[in-house]
């Protein structure tokens, strides 16, 4: 095989992997600060106050502090709670 065939196969493989596993898809970023933090058996439930004045009910396994952050995660199917996977 020449180098172009190997490159083509590699690119096709990467596209298939990203398609099959939805890498990076569906995650959203909410910028704001945490408020009304309550401890739960499996993590923390709190509200994110964003720049538009909205309060978003959220869950995280890591306790957030009350400073400005980027909260990365996904909304529940019904949109009632935001599951935080990463806090920056």
Question: Describe it for me?
Answer:
The model has no long low-confidence stretch (mean pLDDT 87). The protein has one helix and five strands; from the N terminus they run H-E-E-E-E-E. Strand 4 (68-75) and strand 5 (82-87) form a beta hairpin. The chain has a five-stranded mixed barrel with strand order 1-2-3-5-4. It has one helix at residues 3-21; strands at 28-39, 44-50, 55-60, 68-75, 82-87. By secondary structure, it is an alpha+beta fold. It is 22% helix and 44% strand. The chain is elongated. The protein starts with a helix and ends with a strand.
Walk me through the topology.
Layout (H helix, E strand, L loop, with lengths): L2 H19 L6 E12 L4 E7 L4 E6 L7 E8 L6 E6 L1
Parallel strand pairs: 3-5
Antiparallel strand pairs: 1-2, 1-4, 2-3, 4-5
Helix percentage:
10-25%
Helix/sheet category? alpha+beta
For the record, give the distance between the C-alpha atoms at the N and C termini, rounded to a whole number.
44 Å
- What global shape is seen? elongated
Mean pLDDT: 87
Largest sheet: 5 strands, mixed, barrel
Structure characteristics:
88 residues, alpha+beta, 5-stranded mixed β-barrel, 1 helix, 5 strands
Concise description?
The chain is an alpha+beta fold and about 90 residues long. The chain is about 20% helix and about 45% strand.
